[in-house]
Structure formats: structure tokens, C-alpha cells
Target: 3-sulfinopropanoyl-CoA desulfinase
Amino acid sequence: MDFEFSPEQRAIAETTRRFVEKEMPRRKVLQWVRDKVEPPQELFEKLGALGYYGFLLPEAYSGLERPDPMGMLAFVEQFARASAAVTTAWGRAAVILAPLVAKFGSPEQKDLVLPRVMRGEVFMALGLTEPGSGSDAASLRTTAVRRPDGCWVINGEKLYCSQAKSAGFLILAARTNPKVAKQEGISTFLVQDPGRNPSIELTRIETMGLGPVPTFSMHLRNLVLPPDALIGEEHKGWQCVLGGLDNERLYHGAIGVGASQAIIDEVVAYVKQREQFGKPLSKLQSVRHKIVDMQLRVEAARLLVYRGASVLDRTGSCHNEASFAKVAGAECYMHCAYTGLQLLGGYGYTVDSGLPMHFQDAKLFEIGGGAMEVQRDIIARGLGL
Ligand SMILES: Cc1cc2nc3c(=O)[nH]c(=O)nc-3n(C[C@H](O)[C@H](O)[C@H](O)COP(=O)(O)OP(=O)(O)OC[C@H]3O[C@@H](n4cnc5c(N)ncnc54)[C@H](O)[C@@H]3O)c2cc1C
Model:
């Protein structure tokens, strides 16, 4: 199996690395974290200008001959070095939701959403999780009822709807048939400018990390959507959501790999120059071994992430492989944030070192987009258990 990047994919990695150094220096990212503000849209428009929203979109919108999951990983690994959180603001549109619109949306929906996403002009939000349905997402209770005029009336409550206020488009999952099995009665809808809709009440939820990517609870009270807001077929929304979740899990793995590698690079530089007991910390065997163990996890996670991309490239989906990638990448990130902070000592505990940010962000990836236990359940099913 050859997981080497092509020359074009290497160029994506290199361009992204330079982009991140210039546009997202640590002091700027830490300012976003401290102030709990989203990065300016301009940052994402620059990514759009580079074509970095199109990795998983069809040629008509991306200009690529075919989708390029490996190119997507080349980008994510480098971008996540600066901020895992900010990577999710890009990925919710580029990786999870725009490909969903491309696959299931009507021609009008595609023309409305995809060019704006490609230009990096809009964030996207996903309204799936509810107070009573998280890991068991298909048990959602928000309802969508069709009126005689064909419009949809939506009522319910959503939780942790990231970037719902600033998003240009929200993809909302709601129950359209309560009488059938839970996965069979769900439909998905496209909502424009959710933050400006008077029938949608948003309340920011304070979170441990992910400061630059605010998340909200969302009350939907008699939200009326036009007939053409339905994405794909009525009652078939679960299939739409699932493909998006697989993509999310794969790129979450890549975020873990990129952010972990950034931590390791930082730690290596630090322990080589920091002297204690008359020699650099890097000469202490237990320090060296800790760093080696971090790198071992990164290498293993990277291979699983690349394998996922390779399967997605060949078959168009990657259910099991995405779960492997997510578990390996997320647990690697948590481990590297924890161990990296320890190895930087008092400096690691300072906000300016960037390690507290990593420490707080890393935990999200073991929960959001499907907890580690849920991923292990998926892998177990693949093993016939
Ligand atoms: C910062 C943040 C941003 C988010 N953004 C979004 C978003 O934009 N849109 C959206 O729809 N959702 C979003 N989510 C929701 C996220 O995907 C859910 O939190 C996640 O799926 C877990 O659901 P839950 O929190 O309800 O946990 P629960 O389902 O209540 O699970 C709690 C814990 O129970 C354990 N557990 C659960 N199921 C199993 C199992 N089968 N076997 C063993 N143990 C299990 C796990 O340890 C799990 O962590 C976000 C969450 C966070 C924290």
C-alpha cells in the first residue's frame, strides 16, 4: 500500500504550512482563544482563493478532476498545527456539510451553497444533537410537519450547534415520521442565515476549549421553511447525515495527527535547549522515551488516517476506517497534549506556550462527532462482534 503524497499533494502541504505561519501565528490564535471570537471570515476566504474548500466536492464546483481526500489530509495536517479548533470551522463546511449538499441536494441547493462555500464566504452549521439524543443521534425528537401549502413547520431543541449564529447555512435534522424505526423517519433541511431567523433562539454554551468556534443551544419555535428546503428524499435524512459523520471522523483523525505533530516539534526544540542537572533535558532517557512514544502514536494514527482517505478515494465511503482514524488521532492528540505539557514543565502550564489550548481542545475530539466508545462499537461491529 502506497500512502505517499503526490507532488501536488506535497505542494498543498507546503503551501498550507507557509499560510499558517503567515496568517495564524500563535499570538493571533491565542488572542482568538482568549477573546472567544471566531477568526475573521477573510482568513477562510483566503483558503477559498487557494481552492482549499473543494477537496471533496465534484468537479463542477471544485475545478478538480476528481475529489482528493488525500489532498484534504495534506491540508488538514498542516492547518491543524496552528489550531485544531479553527480547523473545525473550515471542516464543518468543507468536509462534512458541503459534500452532503453536493451528494443529496437539489441542483438549486447546490448552486446556492457550494459556490459560496468554495469561496470561503460562509460557515456552515449542523443541527443534529439534542438534549435527549447525542451518541444515539437517530433518536432525535425535533419535528418537521408539512403544511397543506407544502411548507415545513419545525419545532424542537438542538444542542451544541457550533457556529449556528454566524453560519450562512444550517443543516437541520428533524423527524418527519414518528411511526417508523428511528433511522427511517428523519429528514434533513437547509436553513439560510439561522442566526438571523426570529424563529431560532440561540444561546451560547461556554465550553472548556474550542474558544474560536462557539457552540449554541438552539430553540426552534414554529420555524417555517419552504417546500424546497428539504435535502434529498423525505424520511431518508439519516443516510445524508451518516456520510457526513464518516467524513468528519476521518478528518478529526487528521486534526489529531497534525496538532500532535506540532506539539512534538515544540517539545523536541524545547528539551534540546532546556538544561537541568548540567545537561539538556533531551539527554534524559525518560524524556526521550516519552517523546518517542508520542511520535509512535502519531505515526500509527497517520497511517490509519491515510488508509481511511485511500478507502474513501477508491470506494466513495469509509465507515469503519473513519472510526479507526478518529480513535487513533483523537487519543493521540489527548496523549500528546498531556505529555507535551508535562515535558515543558512550568512553561507548558503557561497560556503562551500553547499547550493549555491543545489540552483543552484535544478533549473535544474524544467526544464530539461520536465518542470514543461509539467508534469502538462501530469497529466491533466490523469485527462481527
Ligand atoms: C464543543 C462541541 C461542539 C459540538 N458541535 C456539534 C455540532 O455542531 N452539531 C451537532 O449536531 N453536535 C455537536 N456536538 C455534539 C457531539 O457530537 C456530542 O456531544 C457527541 O456525539 C456525544 O453526545 P452526548 O454529548 O450527548 O453524550 P452522550 O451520548 O450522553 O454520552 C456520554 C458518554 O457516555 C458514553 N457512551 C455513550 N454511548 C456509549 C456507548 N454506546 N457505549 C459506551 N459508552 C457510551 C461515552 O463516554 C460518552 O462520552 C458538539 C459537542 C461539543 C462538546
